[in-house]
Amino acid sequence: MIYLDNAATTRTAPEVIDAMLPYFSEYYGNAGTVYSLGNKSRNAVMHAREIIADSISVKPDEIFFTAGGTESDNWAIKSAAEAYASKGRHIITSKIEHHAVLHTCQYLEKHGFEVTYLDVDSDGLIDIKELEAAVRPDTILISIMFANNEIGTIEPVKEIGELARAKGILFHTDAVQAYGQLPINADELNIDMLSASGHKLNGPKGVGFLYIRHGIKVGEFIHGGAQERGRRAGTENVPGIVGMGAAAERAMRIMNEKTAKEIRLRDYLIERLLKEIPYCRLNGHRTNRLPNNVNLSFLYIEGESMLIMLDMKGICASSGSACTSGSIDPSHVLLATGLKQDEARGSLRLTLSEENTREEMDIVVDELSGIASRLRRMSPLYEEY
Predict the structure, then answer these.
(1) Which of 133, 172, 175, 339 suits 160 as a labelling partner, its CA being 20 to 30 A distant?
(2) Distance from C-alpha of 99 to C-alpha of 257, rounded to nearest angstrom
(3) What is the DSSP letter of 86?
(4) Distance between CA 198 and CA 221 in Å, rounded?
């Protein structure tokens, strides 16, 4: 099997599994208890919190554990809207956000909030001038993702943070794809809230975190006990949190070497595909993109057909976000960049890891070349062209 869908999820690293295992059976105490077995769990949670805080240069008590990126996005946006509603009811986001952000904003629109959805250019970048022009006296939150999960484009986060801070507006970023792939210093980037998920960086599924800067008055998201300093009730997922901490520690340790390898493979794969398969185009910025992301549109071909034929060859890929798998609608991200519906439907996302090899890239190109040729021979659109 050649696995090229690391934006959907990653293989849990062996050292992460090893770190988690004792907390299922040996150190299984509830972290909220006072006896020594519970203390072992509580100390493990504290250690993971310290690791993650250090990874983005913030304080441990600014890190709150969640069930993943979707929950973190919901918490940041809904709680900020509720907490700052007396100041204003206007939110700014972009048209290419993950649905965890878009659907949350749409929910708020039904409850009296106004949302501005910024356009992006053909590479998927927002325009800072357009963002500044969208700011109103009643704007309370800007939520722009760090890097896009489909096309890999990295947004101008530093400039967004500077603008938001100068205007006195909260800035939240969905960093689910960027965390562990790119260096992040939340203070230097003027980020007020940041979402991340464990299973995108070789950690376990079902755990993530939300960074909330000191002084941000967002309230509790899940009501109940006093866990997560009274803001997110529920017994702590100790094995998951331990795994998230171990995955974060690993990601920071290997980041430079890992991303350098991924960029070499990414560029090699892009160059071969564009050169050897006619009528395909790269989606997203050519260089200002995630180290492991390749997204192309193949004209006169359905993306789902390519996925099925790739799977028959033992190659795992995607035609967009894993969260919209099974949807017959073309990607909202690709449509926002100006692609036509037929072009968007012919998209393929290949996301690499440090485990992939150049030999695998050669196999993928060779197989895709044959698949594209076969599918086009069956396409009435291609025949007409």
Answers:
(1) 339
(2) 31
(3) T
(4) 20
* Pairing, β 90-94 against β 193-197: unpaired
Distance CA(259)–CA(270), nearest Å, equals: 16
Q: Residues 105, 280, 316, 323: which is the catalytic one? A: 323
Sign of the Cα pseudo-torsion (59, 177, 166, 86, in order): negative
pLDDT for 321: 52
pLDDT, averaged across the chain: 95
**HSE-CB for 232 with a 13 A CA cutoff:** 22
Report the pLDDT averaged over residues 308-313: 97
**105 catalytically annotated:** no
* 76-95 tens-digit pLDDT: 999 999 999 999 999 999 99
Phi first, then psi, for residue 359 (nearest 5°) are: -60, -40
Question: Please, which residues have CB within 8 angstroms of residue 281's CB and are 6 or more apart in sequence?
Answer: 274, 296, 297, 299, 343
**Tokens 């909220």 belong to residue:** 32
pTM of the model: 0.95
Q: How far apart are the first and last CA of the chain?
A: 35
Query: In Å, how far are 77, 80, 88, 160, 201 from 85, measured between CA atoms?
Result: 12, 8, 5, 22, 35
Taken in order 354, 360, 366, 369, is the CA torsion positive or negative?
Answer: negative
Q: Which residues of 63-92 are buried (b: 16+ CB within 10 A; e: fewer)?
A: bbbbbbbbbbbbbbbbbbbbbbeeebbbbb
β-sheet with 208-212: strand ranges across:
63-66, 208-212, 193-197, 170-174, 139-143, 90-94, 114-118
Residues 6+ apart with CB under 8 A from 377: none
Helix (H, G, I), strand (E, B) or coil at 91: strand
